[in-house]
Amino acid sequence: MKNKNKMYMKINHYYLIVFIILSFSFSFFYLINPEKLNVKDINLIIICVFSCYLGIRFWKKAKIRTKNLFLFFLIANLILTLLSSYQSSVLYSQPLWFGIRPQRYFMIYPLFLFDIICLLDNKKITIKGLSRLLFVFSIVEMSIGFLQYFLYNYFVFTYSYSQNMGRYGGNARLYFDLTILYFCGFCSISGFVKTHKIRCLVFLFFTLLFSVVVVQGRMATLGFLFFILFDYFFLTKEKNYRKISWLPIIFIFLILFFVTPMGQDVIYSIETGDFSTNQIRSDGRAFYLNVVGNNFLGGGYINTDWNLSYIGSKMDKNFFIEDNGMFGFAFEYGWPGLIIEFVLYVISFKYAILLTKKNKPFFLSFLLYSLITSITLMQYGLKPSIFSWLFLGVSFFEYSKYSKRSKYIIERKRNEYFAY
Predict the structure, then answer these.
(1) Distance between CA atoms of 299 and 332, rounded to whole angstroms?
(2) Which of 320, 322, 330, 318 is nearest to 290 (CA)?
(3) Distance CA 211, CA 71 (A)
(4) Kindly report the CA angle at 275 between 271 and 280, in degrees rounded to 5?
(5) Of 21, 156, 182, 293, which one has the greatest count of Cβ atoms within 10 A?
(6) CA distance from start to end of the chain
(7) Block means of pLDDT (10 residues each) for the chain, length 420 residues?
(8) What is the pTM of this model?
(9) What CA–CA distance (Å, rounded) separates 353 from 360?
């Protein structure tokens, strides 16, 4: 007989696995040296085993639409990997394996799309629980990032790419990924409007501070600020008294941003019309567009260990694919890649627009932010990212829930009408 006075803590191991998969995709918050232990490769094994387990257990129960969505992107990424590797082989004599092996994350990560939808459909996890997990993830990432930033001159314990001196001064510039952090930021502004809890604003403040001080991404920060305001004014469009009462806080956020060196840089860019970091990036975009215009398959996947590929992509002239967002993606995957990316965004916007009508604009804000900033950044769908598939899975699940409800209401009204 169990002792009623004894407290038991039940741990949902599905949340634990999702958290491990997310954190391992970032080398466990950049705390593990990938040269000594590549946890991303360990993560691929975890994803494959977890997907096989869920597939054996729930594949027959899975809806046709779920299977179709999952298989489409899994096969599409596999085809893009093979085509880009083949194109590199043709243009630069790069061995096929040199193109396929580095894209193992790009091929395997779509498995996580099925995992998330499957867990949500079978009520192994919930949207609320998943959102809490993402907020915990964001808080841990920010805590490690801030700590490393202030200790950078004394002790370096993270393994993200970094610069000794930041773009706008300070101890350093750390290239931490902001994707999950920004999505939670969009969620927090919605949470603030609905609940008026100050902790939502506190999270938003530290997210912005982390972006400006630690990561120092100009385009990313500006896009984030803009769509935070979009969310706020959308959610308060019918609550003018609330909108007016909280406007001073919004303006304080803006003033704090624009008095920083980054904010001054943004003002200068707006005044001059120059939003590129430098001429090299602009020249790189022109080069990539020229290659895609003349080659249906683009320039192929570039493995920097193969000298001809390195020179052929003009990396020796500081043209970096990661710095050119959508243009770099188009260069690597050509028109087939752009078509698949277009399909991904059309499907995602379809889900996000319905969810926006249900007062959940953060899905749409995240998509618009990703699309606009993809001019210079590798965003949603453009890079191997576990979160991209988690986002699509959650969007699909929420869309299915609301679209089912809409169909049920229409059918019920029709039956009531004919009953009379």
Answers:
(1) 5
(2) 330
(3) 36
(4) 135
(5) 182
(6) 58
(7) 46 91 93 92 96 94 90 96 96 94 95 95 94 96 94 90 62 88 93 86 92 86 85 70 50 52 50 55 88 93 92 88 89 95 94 90 91 85 91 94 57 37
(8) 0.86
(9) 9
